[in-house]
Request: fold
Amino acid sequence: MIAEQRYEPAGFRLPLGLKDVDLALATGAAANVPLPFGSILRDAFLDALAHGDGDKDWAAVASVARRRADYGRSRLTKRR
Reply:
């Protein structure tokens, strides 16, 4: 799905993935267990939702990394 950028139809919608990440973070906090990647993943889910991917499969979170990589590349190109 990720390689083909095929996120529809959704098998597990992105908002449900965000809910699960939030539950994991809350459970970690309750047990005083840090989940540093959980916060990064949560931010990526929020980014995907902000870009209109709410009806897509949670694998669409990969589009965030792609978008961020393209943003960094375009900024480097402008500086040259």
Remarks:
- Residues 14-79 form one domain.
- The chain is about 60% helix and 0% strand.
- The first helix runs from residue 14 to 30.
